[in-house]
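This section describes the prediction task in plain terms. A model, or a person checking by hand, is given the sequence of a single protein chain and must write out its three-dimensional structure as a string of tokens. No templates, partner chains or ligands are provided. The sample shown here is typical of the held-out split.
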Amino acid sequence: MFSSKRCVLEDFQYVTKCAYFDYQREHIFFRTHPHLRPRSTSFTALHRKPLAPNEVVHENAERCPRCKSKNIEPGNEKNFTILDLRFSKGHLKKWVTLHTYWDYQCRKCHQPFNPVGRIEYDKKYGPALIKWCVYCNVLRGQNMLQVNHTLRDAFNVFLQHSVLYRFKGYVASSFQGIYQELLKAVLASPVLHIDETLVNLRKDLSGYVWVLTSMDMVYYFYRPSREGAFLREMLHPFCGVLVSDFFAAYDSLPCKQQKCLLHMVREMNEDLLRSPFDIDLNWLVKECGSVLRSIIESVDRYGLKRRHLPKHQPAVKRFLDVVEARELASDVANKYKKRFRKTGKRMFTFLDHDGIPWNNTNAEHAIKLFAKYRRNADGRFTEKSVKDYLVLVSVFETCEFNDVNVLRFLLSGETTLNGLLRMARRRSPFSVQEAEQTDRP
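The expected answer:
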């Protein structure tokens, strides 16, 4: 509704642009209303004056890095500033460190050098500032423009947008190790939830974001299509129960499977609302609801424990046999009859196991986090940016699953799964497995 409209004529495009609120405020209104001065919020305007340093650090060199000679000659003095944030108990403060150094030349090998090397963008901004911006963008739903305005209002700092977007890639690259550890940990778990959703990229391209979750780990990844042939190789180490919806790509996987009963209940409910006078569908929904309610009442009372659930197996078998034997005239009811015939046993796998959920809520919850972020960024992703985001959100959502404060984890500097679990006061599953293997004769 509020997006810019494409005009047929170039003249109309110019006229429409001149009517925008910000344009009139900064270019027109102040000419007739002097108190409406143009706002100077640009990067250049806020950086005309150098930032006052809180700390000064002198960088000196004693030897030539090439020939290790002490016979070096200092040249011009230079400096650069590092902008960062300082966190303390109940406080957040802008912190500017001024680094001074000299250009040197070795009198022995005539090699020019300086003690700080090349000043990259990540050396001009401290790790706390970088991670705070990424935290606000990825987990708290602010786009980078809003993050920039927050920096301006709170700390009188306004960064270039390109720098802010590079922050995500910088943090994502430091999390590549834990990202691979998460995949290994998820595939080693006894239960695995899986789901996928569409993402639109630039230039009218599209792809799919997939998520794998255990009870306490999350792993997102990107694929250019919804084709599921890669899953057989990717999930080859997995030996547990796969919880999924009714997407056909999962049916060919060799592992045990639990189909999401909640997904089927939602579909049945929507079809019944659309066809309330369908007799066959009413009968099928009523019978299915009766069986499911009895099972879920046991789950609510005893949990997902195997010793309390097998008593429902006779009722489930009887329900599937009755549905198969009954002749149904309704097309919608026959659709569900075919589904029960094909995957009926896979809908009740959890009755034979401990700790296997009957729904795919874990994966759906993880997908919702991406869906919220997608509202403002859909169509503006590149393949690289979406992959960087998925690395970050994999780590952040795993922190949430383990009740670890995400910002505290970021500021801690931890980049391993062991470090994350240590903050959650848990042992790594790999260390437990290694200990068990060591104890074996």
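For orientation: The chain is about 45% helix and 15% strand.
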